Every structure is written in C-alpha cells, then in structure tokens.
Amino acid sequence: MEIFEKSMDKEKLGGLIDAIYAIAMTLLVLELPKPESTAGIGELIRESSNFLIDYGLAFIILFAFWYNQRRINDLVVRHDRITLWINGLSLMMVCILPFATTLLYAFGQRTSWIGQFNLGAVVDIVFVTVCLSIDGLIHLNLAIINHTQVYSQEHHQKVFQIMHSRRIATIVLILSLLLSFALPVPNRVSLIVLPILLILEKEIADKLSQMWRWFQKKR
Q: What percent of the chain has pLDDT over 90?
C-alpha cells in the first residue's frame, strides 16, 4: 500500500481527471433526446434548440471544472492520501452531472421559482447541488494543498491567486443563483449564470477586488 501511494503522482491523477471528464462530456451528447414534435419545422427547431442549450450549458460547466481541477493538479509536486480522496469525490460528482443534465433535457422548459416549488424547481436544485458540490470539493482540495504546501515555492503566488479568484467567483455564483431562483423564469434561463461565472471567474474576481479597493479608499 505504501509503495502504491508513493507512486501516485500528479501525472497519474491528471490522466484519470482527463479520462473521467472526457467520458462525462461524451455522455452529455449521447443522452440528448430526439425531438418528438410533428407540428412542423419551426416547432422541431425550437425543441431541438432547447436540448442543445442544455447540452451547451452542461458542457461548458464541465469544461470549466476540468480546467480548474487540472490547473490545480499541475501545481502540486506530489499528492497525499487526503488530496487523492478529495479529487476522487469530486470526480464522482462529475460522473453524476450527466444524469442531472438528462433531467434538464426532460424538464428544463418548465418555469421554476421560489414561490412555486414544482418539478422544475427540483430539477434546478439537483443540477445546482451537483455543480456546487464539485466546486466546493475543488475549493477544499485547494485549501488543503495550500495548508500542506505540497507545491513548489515558485507557485506560491499562483496558488494564492487561484484561491482568491475561486473564492470570489463562488460567492458571486451563489448570490446569482439565489437571485435567479427568485424570478419566475424557465430554469435554463436561471442557470445560464453558471458557465458565464465559471468562464470569467478571474476577470470577475479582479474587477470586484478593484471595486473593493476603490471603495476602501473613498471611506
């Protein structure tokens, strides 16, 4: 067991991360339902576009999580048992995301909001819970890596920058989701904030930091 643990370097974990995300991304398109409308070409295009929006939403989210998990792994010199298990748990949640996306395929057209707890709201909660679980485990992994300092010293500033941008992005993400659930709109509209924030998390974090420093100077 000890020999096995010593051999578990970041390259092997990186290969597993790439493989799991590749399978999950492929499952998204394999689970795309066939349009059932026979009302005409306009209705067929509308129905197909709804499925493709949900597919694009989930794919971008998975890609953003892959990017974050991979870049954090690349900073590590060698993993210990705790960081290996946290990465394993996050990959388990990644495997659940395609199932949560199939619920969007089936019920994503329904309007859901806080004032009406219906099936659409349950689908929203399942999808968001899976996404936030992955995000939270990535945060936990990064915090442990920073605490144990299992990275080269040349990457110290980079680890701090990633922690800072991820923390702000997650806070903004949660606030945006709470706001979106307060509005009576279809859940694919409310969930569109997920890929936007994940893609632009560094720019959003930098902008908010600048605004905070400006606010402190004005006080």
A: 15
pTM of the model: 0.78
3-class state of residue 113 by DSSP: strand
Dihedral in degrees, nearest 10, Cα atoms 211, 213, 217, 219: 70
Q: Note whether 101 and 128 are within 8 A (CB).
A: no
For residues 166 and 138, is the Cβ–Cβ distance under 8 A? yes
Cβ atoms 93, 134 nearer than 8 A: yes
| C-alpha triplet 69, 198, 82: angle, nearest 5° | 25
Q: What is the pLDDT of residues 143-165, one digit of tens each?
A: 888 877 777 666 667 777 777 77
In eight-state DSSP terms, residue 45 is H
| pLDDT for the residue numbered 16 | 92
Do residues 75 and 159 lie in contact, with contact meaning Cβ atoms separated by under 8 Å?
Answer: yes
| pLDDT band for position 36 (cuts 50, 70, 90) | low
Beta-bridge mates of residue 111: 186
Q: Give the mean model confidence (pLDDT) for residues 130-150.
A: 85
Both tokens assigned to 72:
């954090």
Instruction: Please tell me what DSSP assigns to residue 112.
Output: E
Judge whether residue 26 has pLDDT over 90: yes
DSSP run (H or E) holding 140: helix 119-148
Q: With contact defined as beta carbons under 8 Å apart, do 102 and 31 qualify?
A: yes
